[in-house]
Amino acid sequence: MNIPSELKYTKDHEWVSIEGDIATIGITHFAQSELGDIVYVEVETVDETLEAEEIFGTVEAVKTVSDLFLPMSGEIIEFNKALEDEPEKVNADPYGEGWMIKLKCSDISQFDNLLSSEDYKTLIGA
Hints:
Layout: E1 8-9, E2 14-19, E3 22-27, H1 29-35, E4 38-42, E5 49-50, E6 55-61, E7 65-69, E8 74-79, H2 82-85, H3 89-92, E9 101-105, H4 117-124
Antiparallel strand pairs: 1-2, 2-3, 3-9, 4-6, 5-8, 6-7, 8-9
């Protein structure tokens, strides 16, 4: 199971990397493996400001649809357009080309409250 130590995680299986006040967010390797083959990623919240834990989109796999929860408060400034034509990038490279959104954080301190890679491993029993 691939759980990069430089990222932070949520109990809802999203990952977060941060650069300045911009967070890049996607779903974890564990989440994509549990969902199976991803066929569609929908994010209609670009340019919206949302609070942490609000739903920012959905990911659709062959057998299920799952909500995506925002790990931190802020304005969604970008959606990974490559996922419109190639949602399978989430399965192939969840921490790289399969990223989902970029967020301009309104409270950077929320990053410190997210799970470390060790905490996330404990959560999923890895």
